[in-house]
Design goal:
Blueprint: E1 5-10, H1 21-27, H2 36-47, H3 56-62, E2 67-73, E3 76-85, E4 89-90, E5 93-94, H4 96-117, H5 127-140, E6 152-156, H6 163-178, E7 182-185, H7 194-205, E8 213-217, E9 233-236, H8 240-250, E10 253-256, H9 261-274, E11 286-290, H10 295-308, H11 311-314, E12 318-321, H12 324-345, H13 359-362, H14 369-373, H15 383-402, H16 404-413, E13 416-419, H17 422-437, E14 452-455
Parallel strand pairs: 6-7, 6-10, 7-8, 8-9, 10-11, 11-12, 13-14
Antiparallel strand pairs: 1-3, 2-3, 4-5
Length: 456
């Protein structure tokens, strides 16, 4: 099925039906400054939903003949697609959720290019300007819903998890859905799909018909983590840092399931933010959870956090093993505290303006060999800044594992070298080695060759 190819012509359904000639030209321009390559690659990733590919380079090489063109007509636009993965179609017709995602990709790429990147109104070198850009991208995608009480739970975890962990994430999602809580994930497979799938059943049993399954992604990761069609709100952020900020600004609490380097990156991101002195009094429920078989995973994560960031960081989360109902109840209670806190300060429920995010967590990090080598991984700095640099290290490992540019950089220049204090390097090396041993770096059945070398 995966190897089949389909040609088709599709129209939008209420999303971005009209484009200007300048926008079309920019979208179809594959030269420098043009958007075609990004648009094509994101569209291909969306159409590859359900595939067993988690390698951006492999996906692009397998579907080299894939093309997508915009046809302008008097009554609006159509997308002409050639060589699309057959997995996106049923009896020759594109799956409706995937159809919606294609036009979400188009909407966000056009908006970010025209209204953010090329707009002097946004100072993307300042922390306020970056947060403002994140807000406007989310508002344009109709993600921000002002008339709803806090109920959005962000679920993080690996795309490569075992069946027991997947089923557990689904059970947690079910318990959240029974309590009327909505789900936001990185929108891919594994621990990103499980909670959404479970929540759909919980929502259906409660006749909760307006359930939200929000997926937040970015162009670099989307090929490795194709959006699953349960997602009914998809938004493409410009880079990983704005994607992470979107999670913590829109979500009212976070649940972390087992995962690999990407999950470690996310944990370090949220802990680094919560450890900033300005955020000490802001309620933000954070729960790590998994089945009994994952207990050792969380023991090791907890030890790594204690060794590198200290006991204060360990106070910012709870670990609950093998108890989906307790997870859902604790999250529901935590979100009630978030509501009371924001209500008392007259803060918005739909966007966490009060959260202080240091520029070190906002500045886009390009995981080049030089940048990875020069990371400041030592304890002679504020703990939230150490978390920022550790996050970058894990972000680089993710890039080398699954992102097209990262994989090509490793092929050309060899391993990323990660240097730092031995008190940090040794637990980091042990944690990464455990991810490899537990097949958390790549989907099951694929041999993993490390893209990094930890220098102690």
């Amino acid at each position: 099925m995966e190897q089949g190819f389909v040609d088709t012509l599709i129209s939008p359904e209420g999303k971005l039906e009209v484009l200007s000639k300048a926008e079309v030209n920019k979208l179809l321009d594959s030269g420098k400054g043009g958007l075609y390559t990004m648009f094509r690659n994101c569209a291909l990733a969306v159409l590859n939903c359900g595939s067993t590919i988690d390698d951006g380079k492999e996906l692009l090489e397998r579907y080299q003949s894939f093309e997508i063109n915009i046809i302008q007509r008097e009554r609006g636009i159509k997308l002409e697609i050639r060589g699309a993965p057959a997995i996106a179609f049923v009896d020759g017709k594109m799956i409706k959720g995937i159809h919606e995602h294609l036009f979400a990709v188009l909407r966000d790429i056009v908006f970010v290019s025209n209204e953010v990147t090329d707009n002097p109104k946004f100072d993307l070198s300042s922390t306020e300007g970056i947060t403002d850009a994140v807000f406007h991208i989310l508002r344009n995608a109709n993600i921000l819903r002002p008339q709803i009480n806090p109920n959005l739970v962000v679920c993080w975890g690996g795309h490569s998890i075992n069946r027991a962990e997947y089923n557990y994430s689904k059970e947690v999602g079910y318990q959240l859905g029974l309590r009327g809580l909505d789900i936001c994930t990185g929108c891919g497979p594994g621990a990103m799909k499980g909670p959404m799938k479970g929540a759909t059943i919980g929502h259906a049993k409660q006749r909760f018909m307006s359930g939200r399954y929000l997926g937040i992604t970015e162009p670099g990761i989307i090929a490795a983590e194709s959006p699953n069609p349960i997602v009914n709100d998809l938004v493409i952020m410009p880079d990983i840092e704005k994607r992470l900020e979107a999670f913590v600004r829109t979500g009212h609490g976070i649940i972390v399931f087992p995962g690999g380097a990407g999950t470690a990156e996310e944990i370090l991101y949220i802990l680094g933010i919560l450890l900033h002195p300005d955020n000490a009094d802001i309620p933000f429920p954070l729960i790590f959870t998994g089945p009994e078989s994952s207990r050792d995973y969380f023991v090791q994560i907890n030890e790594f956090i204690g060794t590198t960031l200290g006991p204060e960081a360990q106070q910012r989360y709870r670990i609950i093993v093998d108890d989906p109902e307790a997870v859902a109840r604790q999250m529901q209670e935590g979100i009630k505290q978030v509501r009371e806190f924001r209500k008392g300060r007259s803060d918005a429920y739909y966007f966490n303006w009060a959260l202080k995010i240091d520029p070190e967590f906002q500045r886009p990090f390009a995981p080049s060999h030089e940048n990875m080598r020069n990371l400041k991984l030592h304890k002679n700095q504020p703990v939230h800044l150490l978390a920022a640099n550790l996050r970058r290290a894990f972000s680089g490992v993710v890039a080398g594992n699954v992102k097209d540019e990262g994989i090509r950089a490793i092929e050309q220049h060899g391993h990323f070298e990660i240097h730092g204090d031995s008190t940090i390097m040794e637990p980091m090396d042990a944690l990464l080695a455990s991810f490899v041993a537990q097949s958390r770096m790549k989907l099951p059945g694929k041999a993993y060759t490390p893209c990094y070398r930890v220098i102690k």
